[in-house]
Amino acid sequence: MLIDQLKELIAPEVESLGFILWGIEMxxxxxxxxxxxxxxxxxxxxxxxxxxxxxVSQAVSAILDVxxxxxxxxxxxxxxxxxxxxxxxxxxxxxxxxxxxxVQLHHATENNRxxxxxxxxxxxxxxxLVKTEESEExxxxxxxxxxxxxxxxx
Length: 154
What we know:
five-stranded antiparallel β-sheet, 3 helices, 154 residues
């Protein structure tokens, strides 16, 4: 998969600059812009500034220009994951136990749910247990996650 290939290409450079590669998103080709969007999310324990994003963008752009893994026109965006950060892997989900998340699954669970909001109670191996707002406990495999985001608390 292209996203895995991109991670392998850019993760060492992002990490050498002192950042964590939080995740990568690719939006579909847009007829309005004539290109797709490649979004790279970086994190740092002290936060991420605009200058940090620019530094990573320049470094990643140089790698992508040389390696040329994307055959269609694209726009590169680099940003922090933000307070409503998307959860890209099970390790990130484990670190967010006790946090409220919005979940959208590829396939409905045995509870016949595809979309719900709740608190991550536990993450064991690839299995995630969430207690919903309605106090329903839903268990699902991380590979079934289409999208999961942290619900920010103000």
